[in-house]
Design goal:
By secondary structure, this protein is an alpha/beta fold. The chain is 42% helix and 19% strand. The chain has two domains: 8-233 and 398-413, Aldehyde Dehydrogenase, Chain A, domain 1 (3-Layer(aba) Sandwich), CATH 3.40.605.10; 238-381, Aldehyde Dehydrogenase, Chain A, domain 2 (3-Layer(aba) Sandwich). It has helices at 7-30, 34-50, 52-68, 73-79, 83-97, 137-148, 162-178, 195-201, 216-225, 248-260, 280-292, 310-313, 329-340, 353-362; strands spanning 106-111, 117-124, 127-132, 152-156, 186-188, 209-213, 238-242, 269-275, 296-299, 306-307, 321-327, 345-349, 367-370, 390-391, 399-400, 407-414. A seven-stranded parallel β-sheet has the order 10-9-11-8-7-12-13, with helices on both faces. Strands 5-4-3-6 form a four-stranded parallel β-sheet, sandwiched between helices. The chain has a three-stranded antiparallel β-sheet with strand order 1-2-16, with no helix packed on it. The chain is built from 14 helices and 16 strands. Strand 3, helix 6 (137-148) and strand 4 (152-156) form a beta-alpha-beta unit. One of its GO terms (cellular component) is cytoplasm. Its main location: cytoplasm. Residues 7-292 form the Aldehyde dehydrogenase domain. It catalyses: L-glutamate 5-semialdehyde + phosphate + NADP(+) = L-glutamyl 5-phosphate + NADPH + H(+).
Length: 421
């Protein structure tokens, strides 16, 4: 007989109980009319702003505990909430409310020879599990996108953001209840041990999909340990290649924007590739610009850089560090990216049409950027509203995952009594 009094069994029981509750309410959420969903999203945005002081107080507890535990500054930045960030989170909900509802969209259809009318329509996935680290804004983004796409959300945030996530989910559930909708539309799972992740990702029959978002280690653990279908959101080892035909001032501006705008995000530039054919003066300008911005360069030690190893070429630094390599033109850049990129976002600066076309055709990443910063790989920048993550896999969804990516389809056939011979 299972002893629910042990912490481990109690934790597992809580995860499965919440999963069952989510499955129970999923049919209700799947058929919510668009005006109701939009009304709730706007009300949730209002509630977040009204209760911002409570959120900031809870977040401060997480920050204090994180500093006491020696969390890196990049993680603390991801964790931190202030009035401005809360306004941004609320704005994300309003943006989702203004987006087209994907549920019920007819993708294709026709009338069969026997007169049966058939159509393929978008429907919710059902119960959507999220495993993520640090960023409490993901809690609200996941709720907003799940609700608008008709899904129930099971959220397993990290222990470092526990107080923030608890307060945010409390506010979201209060909003749901005020609109006579089930609080179980969004639920926070226990985060004391990693075992609760395993409970979630193996809850076949209760959970329809799990989406991991965080470090390479977390994503790998979820993808390899799950028996529930997963959508992989990859790490962001993003490259920026400066071609011999680049406009150098513009290229440096794009590079610095991608690297220094916000180092803790997955679309930050982590490796700069420089065409070996560039004049030494141009290369030195690039190096000087990076150092002048406070960036530590990893690369060839003979050039005065921090010595680079294979770990550097595959690293998502999430800090004021960058790997630097000189390559043999656009083909050298393509080869380096093919070996080391995480398939998130890779960019080129060039005025050469042939180089741009070759880069676009041969770099196999979720986003290939021509003459722009890597920072634009973002659901909001794409006009999708808040995103659930950046998918680097090739099945079902690739790139920013917004509302359509949180649906599946079903076929509806309408006949008048036809039978098959």
């Amino acid at each position: 007989m299972t002893d629910l009094n042990t912490p481990r069994e109690a934790e597992r029981a809580e995860v499965l109980d919440k999963a069952r509750r989510a499955k129970d309410v999923a049919p209700t959420l799947a058929t919510l009319p668009q005006p109701t969903k939009n009304q709730v999203l706007h009300a949730a945005a209002d509630a977040l702003l009204k209760r911002a002081d409570e959120i900031i107080a809870a977040n401060q507890r997480d920050l204090d505990e994180g500093r006491a535990q020696g969390l890196a500054e990049s993680l603390l930045d991801r964790l931190a909430l202030d009035q401005g960030r809360i306004e941004g989170i609320a704005g994300g909900l309003r943006q989702v409310a203004g987006l087209k509802d994907p549920v019920g969209e007819v993708l294709r259809g026709h009338v069969m020879d026997n007169g049966i009318q058939m159509k393929q329509v978008r429907v919710p996935l059902g119960v959507m599990g999220m495993v993520y680290e640090a960023r409490p804004n993901v809690t609200v983004d996941a709720f907003g996108l799940a609700l608008k796409s008709g899904n129930a959300a099971l959220l397993r945030g990290s222990k470092t953001a526990r107080h923030s996530n608890e307060k945010l989910v409390e506010i979201l559930q209060d909003t749901l209840a005020a609109h006579e909708l089930p609080r179980e539309a969004v639920q926070l799972l226990p985060c004391e041990t990693h075992d609760s992740v395993q409970d979630l990702i193996t809850a076949r029959g209760l959970v329809d999909v799990v989406i991991p978002r965080g470090s390479a280690r977390l994503i790998e653990a979820v993808v390899t340990g799950a028996t529930v279908p997963t959508i992989e959101t990859g790490t962001g080892n993003c490259h920026f290649y400066i071609d011999r035909d680049a406009e150098l001032d513009s290229a440096i501006a794009m590079l610095l924007n991608g690297k220094t705008r916000r180092v803790s995000v997955c679309n930050a530039t982590e490796t700069v590739l420089v065409d070996a054919a560039l004049p030494e003066e141009a290369k030195q300008r690039i190096i000087t610009a990076l150092r002048g911005a406070g960036v530590t360069i990893h690369g060839d030690a003979s050039k005065g850089f921090v010595p680079a190893t294979d770990e550097d070429w595959g690293e998502e630094y999430l800090s004021m560090d960058i790997a630097y390599a000189e390559v043999g033109g656009v083909d050298g850049a393509i080869a380096h990216i093919a070996k080391w990129s995480s398939g998130h976002t890779d960019a080129i600066a060039s005025q050469g049409a042939l180089a741009l076309r070759r880069f676009a055709d041969h770099v196999d990443s979720a986003a290939v950027v021509l003459n722009a910063s890597t920072a634009f790989t973002d659901g909001e920048q794409y006009g999708m509203g808040a995103e659930i993550g950046i998918s680097t896999q090739k099945l079902h969804a690739r790139g920013p995952m917004a509302l359509p990516e949180l649906t599946t389809t079903k076929w509806i056939l309408e006949g008048t009594g036809q039978t098959r011979p």
